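ARCHIVE CARD
Drawer: 12
Card no.: 0347
Subject: one protein chain, sequence and derived structure
Cross-reference: see card 0346
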Amino acid sequence: MLRMLKRLTVIAIAGALLLPASGCGDREGALFGKVRDATDLILLPDVTVAAKSRKNGALAETKTDQAGQYRFTSLADGPYEIKAKLEGYADATTYAEIFTDSNVRADVTLSPSATSVETSLIVTVLDQRTRLPIVGARVNLFVGPVPGGLSHAESKDVEAEDGTVEFETDAIGKNVVRYYMLQVVAVGYLNEIVELQMSDVTPDLRPTVLLTAV
């Protein structure tokens, strides 16, 4: 009996050693970056920066320091929308993906309100042969300040009978270029990718995407 109790004690201790310690299962990463003026690239202090999880809507806020830098030290992993606000400037949004134990950089550029232009993006999805709207098609939107640095921003399904879907876009400053990529998918059709550029000269984009039936 004593030998059996000793054996059970050893098994219990060994099992306890295999249990994860409290907090070890956290899946978090850090997000940091700089906020600049779009006209002269000066770093901006006291900017309110909000990081919103696109997975569950959780919101974290901070402000840039005197060097125009911000940092979030422990964000749950997943995709985030990062919005910067400062009086006298148009709001600006960028996107980032946080991974466990990662340090992700996402810089933001703000344009003075007086020099900013309102923008819009409306996508029309049609059948290439019939030119009829494809209701139910999904449009995945990617955006970034440079062509090679695009992040997934939003996905929407075409619900309107005319085959259009509209995305919300921030105002854009003078001499600023914003890059978009559309990935359009629909059942029974080949996927299509379209690259776009938005600026103060072309603030309203109305691309028509033609899908080819399989």
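Annotation on reverse: The first strand starts at residue 28 and ends at 37. The chain has two domains: 28-113, 120-211.
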